[in-house]
Amino acid sequence: MEKRNVVVLFGGNSVERDISILSAIQVMKAMDSTLYNIIPVYLTNHHTFLENSEFDSLEAFQKEIKGDKVYFESDNDKVYLVKKGIFPHKRMIDFVFNIVHGKNVEDGTLAGFLETLGVSYSSCSVLASSIFQNKHYTKILLDYYGINTLPHLGFLEEEWMEKSNACLKQAKELGFPLMIKANSLGSSIGIFKVKNEEDLFWALSTAFKYDKMVIVEKALEDYSEYNQAIFKDYLSSIEEVKGDKDFLSFANKYEGSSVVRTFPANISKSLEEEISSITSQIASIFQIKGVIRVDYLFDNESQKLYVNEINTIPGSLAFYLFENKEFKELLKEMVDEGKRYDYLEGLKINTFDSHILNNFQGFNNK
Fold first, then answer.
1. Is the C or the N end of the chain the one with fewer CB within 10 Å?
2. SS3 at position 100
3. What domains lie within the chain, and their CATH numbers?
4. Interstrand relation of 191-194 and 239-243 (parallel, antiparallel or unpaired)
5. Strand 95-99 relative to strand 4-11: parallel, antiparallel, unpaired?
6. 3-class DSSP state for residue 26?
7. Phi and psi at residue 268, to the nearest 5°
């Protein structure tokens, strides 16, 4: 069987760029090289695509990042990766693993680019990607479907600049402690827990340096945090995560700070069923493609479960949560599912024959 040419696309103009690099390298190391020609393509924060066969190694990113400039080209329902220069070449691309994290890339921007090219890819559609990258609208939609989220407010930067006192008043009415979150970021970047009015002003001002919208959310004091991933209708086991801070910080997640992971989580059968039911419901409502991870908060006092965030391209694609599925197998199934999705979409009617252009009588600009 002929190998498929698979681009692993990562990087981008995002504060989560480094996490994208780590995720992409893990994906490339796990992919079955007997089935795929793996082509690493790095998107710089200056919007340039670079290719380098050494991009599957962390060492390539611990020094000045160098690669050949490439671009994508569509021609007669085929997509090519093109390199110009002294030794130009052009390769047909069968599939793209979209391994990016954060604003400007994971928010549907790259999904839309890949849709426009007409190439099969691994992640959620434009709609689901853009919704779930936006914490404010994610909460609004989940609330609409009766899925619990913590009370919150969303402030635009214009509101903050023009009516900061009114914003502070509304935020305080939620009651301290509060979580302040840059609306479209992930990996716990641009997130602060505040316990008084003085810290609230600082946290809001700082969060607006990351994003044009910030949410203020009621913080839980005594809570547990759980994660679960889903691919198609296949649910992962549930993980409990505990950090050494007031919340699971970037340092907890990525920099070796103290964190305790219990996997699978030691929880009641009823809580396990509730988490799995909500994860499946979210995947169904929003017609999820690829792997997503749903992060939950459980209030130990009220015994109430809340959805915290939904990750459309989770770090390392959350492969570690799928106990009975090897990473290599998961990646193969993602390629097959992405191709199947595009095949079914291709059966839909996307053209309409009319005589409007031939019979058009001219524009009336009066």
1. C
2. coil
3. 4-122 (3.40.50.20), 151-218 (3.30.1490.20), 223-312 (3.30.470.20)
4. unpaired
5. parallel
6. helix
7. -70, 160
Mean pLDDT of the chain: 91
Of 35-39, 54-58, 343-347, the least confident = 343-347
Element containing residue 42 per DSSP (H, E): strand 36-43
Answer yes or no: is pLDDT of 35 > 50: yes
The Cα–Cα gap between 293 and 326 comes to 17
- Pair 193, 179: CB distance under 8 Å: yes
The alpha helices in 17-117, defined as continuous H runs, are 17-30, 109-117
CA distance 148 to 133: 18
- Range list of β-strands (E), 100-251: 152-156, 178-182, 191-194, 213-218, 223-231, 234-235, 239-243
d(C-alpha 359, C-alpha 366), whole Å: 20
What is the C-alpha to C-alpha distance for residues 226 and 240, in angstroms, rounded to an integer? Answer: 4
Which of helix, strand or coil describes residue 240? Answer: strand
User: What residue type is assigned to position 101 of the chain?
Assistant: H
> In one letter, which amino acid is 245?
K
Residue type, 157: E
Residues 154-188 have pLDDT tens digits of 999 999 999 999 999 999 999 999 999 999 876 57
12's tokens: 């981008």
- Strand 152-156 and strand 213-218: pairing? antiparallel
The CA angle 260-264-267, to the nearest 5 degrees, is: 95
The tokens 């921007």 sit on which residue? 109
